[in-house]
Amino acid sequence: xxxxxxxxxxxxxxxxxxxxxxxxxxxxxxxxxxxxxxxxxxxxxxxxxxxxxxxxxxxxxxxxxxxxxxxxxxxxxxxxxxxxxxxxxxxxxxxxxxxxxxxxxxxxxxxxxxxxxxxxxxxxxxxxxxxxxxxxxxxxxxxxxxxxxxxxxx
Length: 154
Description:
It is a single chain. By secondary structure, the protein is mainly alpha-helical. It has one domain (1-123). It contains eight helices and three strands, in the order H-H-E-H-E-H-H-H-E-H-H. It has helices spanning 2-6, 27-35, 54-58, 77-87, 92-96, 100-110, 124-141, 145-153; strands spanning 39-43, 67-71, 115-117. The protein has a three-stranded parallel β-sheet with strand order 1-2-3, with helices on both faces. Helix 3 links the parallel strand 1 and strand 2 (67-71). The protein is globular.
C-alpha cells in the first residue's frame, strides 16, 4: 500500500490487481491479470507457481508482459502447510517445475520478456526492501531493469 500511495500520481492509477490477504485470486483472475499486463508484480507467500495452475499457465500467451517481478519464496506456518497439502497431490517433476529457474523458463516460453525473481527463500521484510528498491529505481529514477537488478545484487 505504501508503494501504491507513493507513486499514485504518476504510475499507479492504471495498476490493477488483488491486494491484501482477505482472499486468494481465482484462476480466472490470475489469467486475466497476466494476459492484460505490460508489467506484473507478485508479492506473496511461497512459490508463485503454487498459486497458479501450471497447465493453464503453459498454454497462455503473454507477449504484452514486458516485465514480471516475482517477490515470492516467503514462508509462514500457514503458507507452508497450504503448500505441503497441495504438494502431496503433485509428482516430484511437477513440484520441480515450481522452482525459481524453472518458473523463469516457463514464463519466458509464454512470452514474458524479462523476469526478476528470488532464487532462494527470504523474509517479508527483505522482499519489502526489494520492492522499494525496484520501485524507486524503475519508476522514479527511470533506470533500466538491468541497472536495477545490478543495484539489488549489491
